[in-house]
Design brief:
The longest helix has about 35 residues, at about 475-510. Strand 35 (about 540-545) and strand 36 form a beta hairpin. With about 600 residues, the protein is an alpha+beta fold. It is built from 9 helices and 39 strands. A 5-stranded mixed sheet has the order 23-27-26-25-24, with no helix packed on it. The chain folds into 2 domains: about 50-450, Kelch-type beta propeller (Neuraminidase, 6 Propeller), CATH 2.120.10.80; about 510-595, no CATH class.
């Protein structure tokens, strides 16, 4: 065993010589958190961009991930100016770069100006069509709550053509009078999601019509809206959320959660509605585990794991009331597919929020954007006072940005552009390792089970393989074979190390044979310089040129510093000394020593 360790150490030393360790890379550096972020903002004059020291809250907006950017549109924000809270609604679109690391104190939003006519809405819509690199907005939503009495008018659709730099150009795509919008009225507080080519809008409230129970489809290629049958959707609902899951079913699935069914009767999270866009059918699926309490205005996001599960993050919300009763809704629950099992994350509540958005932004990272205060000081009955009370306190998340890690079940204040692969949290791993998960999967409805059996997962680009160590056993033959194989491997590694070492040394040589070969010793002295060949070695003789200048001692190891290497003059005849060895290699051209 000691011989094997010794051989391994020798091989490691040789390989270290042949392949020097790379220069250590610096740790990712975030921007200086003490910088004046107000000066760093792209356009502080545009509503919606506020320095972190002045920022209070952002809420009721819509947001989407497109390429390397987060885009935020509509909603309200608040900030401090001379000690007094200011309440504004956003009149520009914001973008945040996700191709670089940042903390929530150093993140910088850029602004995209809107042309006249582009609406600014609360609870609006923002759908991304990757094939066109275009965001669509304006269909759903209501006027900002600071101006509650204003009706935003009939629905229309506006397109933001993205340029890949966090900027873009707005234009109208579907006019409010277009035939495709006939018999479709504006809705707000809808459940929405979108896939590669279609957006889906479920339910919602209305200014002038009863709550909607059906669903609207928008075909992004044809630019057409259509009403979808309400079969399977049950009662009308609003203020819930819907999540697109691309990894199951022939065309992905859309899952609807929570919301207000009617008159503050809230939907049960133990039942999840599953939309199959390929079959155009809804299915109701029961769940197991610790489901969230009934709520509205929560946020939803998801991510696929390397274990081929999909975890959906449900955070915050309210029961429709403000004040201390909202504190219990400061919770996080995770629904894992394909088992449809809930896991509650354990942490101390105390900062409830609602009307925020959430997104999976790479591997295990969930980005939370904004949120109104669900536990403000008791407001009076005035509508405007209530609207402002939810935006008066300073958000506990700097700039309203937080990162939740699905692997660790922990909050972070920084975003990583190149994160580690997402592997399930231990609680979810333990669940799938047990018999209960198999029973839960077996008990899925026939239709949902068929969808879950059609999996499509792409391994993470950062995935590294891992395996558990095998049990230790004693087999003498196997050990002997392993030792022999190990010795052979070490010998091979040593040979490779020697080969590359010699190759590296030859590459370092830069002899000027044109000048050195056949030149008098005085010329060689010019290009070499005294003392170019040094070390402890074989020949103690000194060599001098005819003028008595000291050239150097030829030794076994040389450290050359001149631009051209010296030629060895020995009693055995001239030749060129091979770098690093002191070995004389003779050349056909022989130099004659001066008489």
């Amino acid at each position: 065993m000691r011989h094997q360790v010794l051989l391994s150490a020798i091989a490691f030393a040789l390989l270290s010589t042949a392949f020097p360790a790379p220069e250590p890379q610096p740790e990712p550096q975030y921007a200086n958190e003490n910088e004046n972020l107000e000066a760093r903002s792209a356009d502080e004059g545009q509503p919606g961009v506020i320095s972190s020291d002045k920022f209070l809250r952002r809420a009721f907006h819509a947001s989407a991930i497109a390429g390397n950017f987060l885009y935020v549109d509509g909603g309200q924000f608040s900030y401090i100016n001379n000690g007094t809270p200011q309440y504004k609604f956003t009149t520009s679109t914001l973008s945040l770069d996700l191709s670089k690391d940042w903390t929530n104190a150093t993140a910088v939003f850029n602004t995209i100006s809107k042309i006249p006519g582009v609406p600014n809405l609360n609870f609006g819509s923002l759908w991304y069509h990757e094939a066109e690199t275009t965001l669509y907005s304006g269909f759903a939503g209501e006027s900002p709550s600071y101006d509650r009495g204003s009706d935003p008018g009939p629905p229309s659709l506006w397109a933001l053509k993205l340029d890949g730099t966090g900027q873009g150009t707005w234009s109208e795509t579907v006019d409010s009078k277009a035939s495709t919008l006939n018999d479709i009225h504006r809705v707000t507080s809808t459940l929405q999601s979108y896939g590669p080519n279609n957006a889906w809008v479920l339910g919602g409230a209305s200014y002038s019509e009863p709550p909607m129970s059906g669903m609207i489809k928008f075909d992004m290629n044809a630019k057409q809206f259509s009403n979808i049958s309400s079969d399977g959707t049950g009662q009308p609902r609003s203020r819930g959320r819907m999540q697109y899951v691309p990894n199951f079913g022939p065309g992905g699935v859309h899952l609807a959660f929570g919301g207000d069914l009617k008159n503050n009767v809230l939907a049960d999270f133990s039942i999840v509605m599953v939309w199959d866009p390929t079959a155009s059918k809804w299915y109701n699926q029961s769940t197991t585990g610790a489901a969230p309490a009934r709520r509205v205005d929560f946020c939803l996001a998801g991510a696929p794991s390397n274990e081929q599960s999909y975890e959906i993050f449900v955070y915050g919300g309210s029961n429709g009331n403000l004040g201390t009763s909202a504190v219990p809704f400061d919770t996080i629950h995770i629904l894992t597919l394909p088992a449809f099992h809930w896991t509650q994350v354990s942490y101390a509540p105390g900062n409830p929020r609602h009307a925020m958005t959430c997104h999976g932004v790479g591997e295990s990272q969930i980005l939370v954007v904004g949120g109104a205060d669900t536990n403000p000081p008791d407001p009076n009955s005035n509508v405007n006072a209530v609207a402002r009370s939810k935006m008066t306190s300073k958000d506990t998340l700097t700039q309203g940005l937080g990162i939740f890690d699905l692997s660790t079940f922990e909050w972070a204040d920084h975003y990583t552009a190149s994160p580690a692969p997402y592997h399930q949290n231990d609680a979810i791993k333990t669940y799938y390792a047990g018999q209960q998960s198999q029973a839960d999967i077996k008990n899925l409805t026939t239709e949902v089970s068929a969808l879950m059996n059609q999996k499509s997962f792409t391994p993470s680009a950062n995935t590294t393989s891992s395996s558990s160590p095998a049990p230790s056993t004693s087999h003498t033959g196997a050990i002997a074979g392993g030792v022999v194989g190990g010795v052979a491997l070490i010998a091979l590694l040593a040979l490779l190390a020697w080969f590359f070492y010699r190759r590296r040394q030859r590459q370092k040589q830069n002899y000027d044979y044109t000048k050195a070969q056949g030149a008098p010793l005085e010329e060689m002295y010019k290009y070499g310089g005294p003392g170019d060949i040094r070390g402890e070695g074989e020949r103690p003789q000194d060599y001098k040129d005819p003028n008595g200048h000291y050239v150097g001692e030829l030794h076994g190891k040389d450290e050359r510093r001149g631009p051209v290497e010296l030629t060895d003059q020995t009693a055995e005849g001239p030749g060129v000394v091979e770098a690093g060895t002191g070995t004389v290699k003779r050349k056909p051209e022989r130099l004659e020593l001066p008489a």
